[in-house]
Structures are given as structure tokens and as C-alpha cells.
Design goal:
This protein has about 290 residues and is an alpha+beta fold. The protein is built from six helices and twelve strands. It has one domain: YojJ-like (1, CATH 3.40.1700. The chain is globular, with a radius of gyration of 19 Å.
């Protein structure tokens, strides 16, 4: 499966596992910037047959879980992510597009404390060595990534306010020149209607490459009937934004509304050892 199809499939999973469970929108939901603990997150690193070995060599991951190894395509991604969501498995996945295989990884060790520890050791034993410096995340995402109005800074008192999963995805993409994709659990979209749009308490589906943010998709209520709906019955739109690096920062270059047709991918079987009906049920099961 190509990376574009993988990203489409991840957006579809977000819609089915998180959005559909909230419809119709009657109850209160988290305001923008607050974590939605009822939504299912996800983290995928793609692509390349040697990525897993490189991550083990660099101690970013401990191992590749053989019993979690799967072969997926298209919409069947939901069955794999849904299974792990039902088991409350943390961590993420490594996807090899050549063999169309995916491995579950309990943890990615890309946190700031670990990087600082190894940097200090290297500088102690090899004075003057050029060690890897911590990333300035402001170079990889725009401020509108944190809030719809772009007024929430990426750093507050020198502390990055992005989530651990998002920072890890940015670091991994930059260091290994791969694409990473996340379903964020931080609610995105204005809490009150702005320009006719209002958030629904769900996070964005974001895609990163070595240069930073590349795509986001978020769901919102549309009060202005501005264009095609993702869910016409409930007035829900899917806003797709694309980004590019320019002059040392990331800028938005396009915005459009998606329909379910835009997210269609090739449906193929998944070798996972689960009956399709059972796997589908697990995709939306929450403890």
C-alpha cells in the first residue's frame, strides 16, 4: 500500500472508530486543546524494509513483536488498529510498504531525556564531538497546528506543548527520512463557531516527513453549508490541509473538504487470525 493510501486509511479509521461513536452530537465534548481520553489514538512509522532494524540498532525500539506481525492493505487497517485499541495496547506501528507488513511496537524511545542523556555521555567521553541537538519543533509545525486560530504557541516557557506521540513522530520522520502518521487525542477546532465551523472534540490526523508537517485532517460541524459534507446527515465536514517548508518554517498551501469517496482505497484481505466480523467489532470497542 502506498503512503497516500495508508494515510487515507488512517483517516477512515479515525472516522469510524472515533467520529461515528459520537454521532449524533448531543453531549458535551472536550474543548480545543484538551485531551479526549475517550478517543482512540494511533501512531504509524512508514516506509521501508530496513526501518525496524535501524530503530533497534539505535535503541529507539527494543524489538519487533513477531506475534503482532500482519499483512494489510487499504481499509483493513481498521481491523489491526481496532484490535490493539481493544487490548489497550500503547505504542505504535512500523509499516513496510514493500512487503505490506506491519509490526506493533510497544514503545518508541525518542523522548527528550534519553536524547539529552546520550548527548551528555558522548560529550564527556569525546569532548568536542558534534552530537545531535534537540529539535526546535517550531521549525516543523505552524502555530495553527495547536489551535484553529493559530494563537496557541508551540513553546511555553521553553517547554514544547506538543504531545509525546506527536514529538516522537516528528523526531522519527526527521532523523530517518520516513513518513510518520498520528491520530492525535488532543481536541482540535474552535469550541464556538468560527467562520461557520465548530470542533467536535476530536484530534487531527497528521502526517509528517523529514521536513515537518505535510497533511492534517480534522472533523468539524459546518453551519454555513460551505461545500461537500463528510457526513451530510449530521452536518460534519472533513477539512484537509496541506503544508510545505518555506524559509525555515512550515506554511499551509491548500485547504479543501473531503468526502468518503476521496478516502477510498483498495480493499484487500488482512492476515491477522481474526474473523472479519470480530475484528470489526473490536475496532470500535472501548473499555
Amino acid at each position: 500500500m502506498q503512503q497516500d493510501d495508508l494515510y487515507k486509511a488512517l483517516v477512515n479509521y479515525h472516522a469510524n472508530a472515533n467520529l461515528q461513536r459520537r454521532l449524533p452530537l448531543r453531549s458535551m465534548y472536550p474543548q480545543e486543546g484538551k485531551e479526549n481520553k475517550q478517543s482512540v489514538g494511533a501512531y504509524i512509522a512508514a516506509n521501508g524494509p530496513t526501518l525496524g532494524q535501524k530503530l533497534m540498532k539505535d535503541e529507539i525500539i527494543e524489538n519487533l513483536c513477531g506475534d503482532r506481525r500482519v499483512v494489510i492493505c487499504g481499509e483493513d487497517l481498521e481491523e489491526v488498529l481496532g484490535f490493539h485499541a481493544a487490548q489497550e495496547d500503547d505504542g505504535g506501528f512500523i509499516y513496510d510498504g514493500q512487503s505490506q507488513q506491519m509490526w506493533h511496537v510497544p514503545r518508541f524511545n525518542t523522548n527528550k531525556d534519553r536524547l539529552k542523556r546520550w548527548q551528555h555521555l558522548a560529550e564527556f567521553f569525546w569532548p568536542g564531538i558534534a552530537t545531535r541537538k534537540p529539535l526546535d519543533f517550531r521549525q516543523f509545525v505552524p502555530q495553527e497546528f495547536r489551535s484553529y486560530d493559530g494563537k496557541s504557541p508551540i513553546y511555553v516557557r521553553n517547554e514544547c506543548k506538543l504531545g509525546t506521540r506527536t514529538m516522537s513522530a516528528i523526531e522519527l520522520a526527521n532523523r530517518y527520512d520516513v513518513q510518520t502518521m498520528v491520530i492525535r487525542q488532543t481536541a482540535y477546532g474552535p469550541s464556538e463557531p468560527v467562520d461557520g465551523l465548530q470542533g467536535v472534540g476530536l484530534g487531527q490526523v497528521a502526517r509528517f516527513d523529514k521536513n515537518g508537517l505535510r497533511d492534517t485532517v480534522f472533523f468539524a460541524r459546518d453551519f454555513d453549508r460551505r461545500g461537500p459534507k463528510f457526513d451530510d446527515e449530521h452536518g460534519i465536514v472533513a477539512v484537509h490541509r496541506q503544508y510545505e517548508p518555506r524559509n525555515g518554517s512550515i506554511v499551509r498551501v491548500s485547504e479543501r473538504l473531503l468526502t468518503p469517496v476521496d478516502l477510498q482505497t483498495t480493499k484487500q484481505s488482512v492476515q491477522y487470525g481474526l474473523p472479519p466480523s470480530r475484528a470489526g467489532q473490536l475496532a470500535v470497542k472501548m473499555a
